[in-house]
Amino acid sequence: MKRFILVIFGLILACSGISFAQTANLTSWPKGASPQEVGKRVAARFVATPHTNFNRPTPPSVFTYPESCTWYGALKFSKATNDEALKDDLIKRFEPVFTTEAKMVPPVTNVDWAVFGSVPLQLYIQTKDKRYLELGQGIADKQWAKPDAGVKVKPEQLEAFEKGYSWHTRMWIDDMFMITALQTQAYRATGDVKYINRAAKEMVLYLDSLQKPNGLFYHAPDVPYFWGRGDGWMAAGMAEILSSLPENNPDRARIMKGYKTMMASLLKYQAPSGLWRQLIDEPGSWEESSSTGMFTYAMVVGVKKGWLDKKAYMPAARKAWLGLVSYIDENADIKEVCEGTNKKNDKQYYLDRKRVVGDLHGQAPILWTAAALISN
C-alpha cells in the first residue's frame, strides 16, 4: 500500500511537471516562486512605497522599525543578487537622512527605534561610505551607553544596565531581533567583537528567562501565549546572531541549543499549507504570514549553514516558502499580516488582531528569506 501511494504521488508530480528532486531542495522552484523573482518584486514594491506609519494615513515622524527591517532586507537582497540598480535606489531613499529627513532618524530611546541603525550599517558594508558607519555605529554604541539625562528609564532597565546588559532590556521577545540585529551589524561593519559579545550576552539572558520547555516563547513573562510574530522575531534574531557569532564565543553553545530547540518545536506546529498560525499552538487560530516569513528565514539559514538536519528541515523550509509565496498578491503585497501588536494578557486580543495586506512586518522577512535562499 505504501509503495502504491508513492507511485500515485510520483505520477501526480510528473503530471504537474514537478520532480521528486524539486520537492526536496531549496534551489529548484516553480515559475514565479523563485527567491530571485519574488525578492525582486517585493524589493521594487518597497522602493515605491513612501515612509509608512503602521498603516495609519498620517506620515511618520521617525522611521518605524518595520520600514527599517524591510530596508535592511532589501539591501541584503540587492547584495545577494548583485543588483546594482536596486542598491542605488535604496541609497537614494536614504540620502535625505543627511539633509531634509534628518529629523526622522529615531532617538535611541527604545529597541524599536534603535534597530534603524542596522540600515546605515548595511549600507556601509556594501558601499564603504563612512557617513553610514558613523551614523549606525553611533546608534549601536548608545544602546549600551548610560542613558541620556531626561530619558525615562524603568528601574529594572537600569538594573540590567548595571549588570552589563542594554538599558533597552524589557523582556519582550520582539527585542531579540531589534537588539541583536543592530549589534551584530555593528560587528559585521567594524570587526569589533564587543558588539557581537553584547548581543550574545543579551540573547542568553532572554533565552534563560523566557524560553519554555517546548522551545517556544511567551510574548512576555506576564503574557502566557505563543504569539506567532513575537516568536518570529526571536527565531530570526537567533539566526542573525549565530550567522556571525565566532565559534569560540562562550555563549554560542547556549544560543545554538535554544535555536535548535525552537526549530524542533516549529516543525510540529507547521500547518499543512506550510504556514504557522497567529497563536502557534492553537490549531483553530488563523494562519499568519509575517511569523511564517520569520520562521522560514530562521529555518533556511539553519539548513544552509548545516545547523539543522536537511532531511527533516529542508522540506519544511521549502513548504513554508511556497506557502508564503502563495499569499503574495499581484501588487507584491503579502496578505494575512497581523497588525502592530502590543502585549496583553488576553488570548482573544491576539486572535482578534486585524489582518492587513502589504504591511512591512510581512514584507521584511520575505526579503530576508529570499536573500538567505540565494546566498551561499
TrEMBL record:
PROSITE patterns of this UniProt entry? Answer: PROKAR_LIPOPROTEIN
Keyword entries, A-Z: Hydrolase, Signal
Q: Which Gene3D superfamilies match?
A: 1.50.10.10
* PANTHER family, per database record: UNSATURATED RHAMNOGALACTURONAN HYDROLASE (EUROFUNG)
InterPro entries named in the record: 6-hairpin_glycosidase_sf (IPR008928), 6hp_glycosidase-like_sf (IPR012341), Glyco_hydro_88 (IPR010905), PolySaccharide_Degr_Enz (IPR052043)
Q: Name one GO molecular function term.
A: hydrolase activity
Q: Which domain of life is it from?
A: Bacteria
From the UniProt annotation, give the residues forming the signal peptide.
Answer: 1-21
Q: Which residues cross the membrane?
A: none
- The protein's name in its UniProt record: Glycoside hydrolase family 88 protein
What organism is listed for this UniProt entry? Pedobacter albus
